[in-house]
């Protein structure tokens, strides 16, 4: 359900109710999916770490981390002429890259 409010916090208009629908892309638009309803997200994560003693009681740690996730669910509210639906697609993608450097003192 989606509701809209004005600046004073008062409800404007009527709340819109949406039905859940699993969708897939097709030529020219979207269709309701009837197959592959049990699709799951996939993730691949890896990292490399290097520790180096710079001098006595001082150590530097350099790390690289990458994580990629595919087939994430994406939910889009779409009102249309036949009703209002929450279209859910499994076409989302996420990519995370980190490169932290730490100084460790003993």
What keywords describe this structure?
106 residues; mainly beta; six-stranded mixed beta sheet; two-stranded antiparallel ribbon; 0% helix
Account of the 3D structure:
It is a single chain. The chain is mostly beta strands. Helix content is 0%, strand content 75%. It has one domain (2-34, 41-105). It is built from no helices and eight strands. Strands 3, 4, 5, 6, 7 and 8 form a six-stranded mixed sheet that branches.
Brief overview:
The protein is mainly β.
The fraction of residues in strands falls at over 45%
| Termini gap | 55 Å
What is the overall number of helices? 0
- Main sheet, how many strands, which sense, barrel? 6 strands, mixed
Domain count, please report it.
Answer: 1
Any idea what the shape is? Answer: elongated
Radius of gyration: 24 Å
**Helix and strand element order:** EEEEEEEE
Mean pLDDT: 83
Number of strands: 8
Low-confidence stretches: none
Instruction: Report helical residue fraction.
Output: under 10%
* Overall SS class: mainly beta
